[in-house]
Amino acid sequence: MTAQVVSIFTAPAEGEPMQTQDSVELVAGSGIVGDRYATGQGHFSDPKYADKQITLVESEVAERVGLTPEQTRRNVVTRGIILESLIGKTFRIGDTEIRGIRPCDPCSYLEGLTRPGLVKYILNKGGLRAEILRGGHLRVGDELILETGDRPE
Question: Averaged over 19-23, what is the pLDDT?
């Protein structure tokens, strides 16, 4: 199976509903144009963390715990890849270049926006925090390709 983007979401500010996007523009060192973290309006906004620029989550995880993709509050929803395998790796989506930094573990804030007990169900599977190395456009349907040109397994 090809690893690809199945959904994209942004929110203008902390706690605001996630808005479905067909495509977004990524800005290196900043985030997604119009998203709360690029504008410093996110719940966890702090300029010292480069890994808040973009977050990814596996659609398979959302499905397993009964969440809709937007309820995960992650920007990019993927299918066909274990995102943990991208930590420390550089990959492309569309004409962007991204580096996986660390897990995007679920927290009590996310649990408060969804349902009690959620954290224990997706512990260690909450997604990936990443840094945007080269900006560009990212679209639903784009493939994830490792810096080596390989398609992730």
Answer: 97
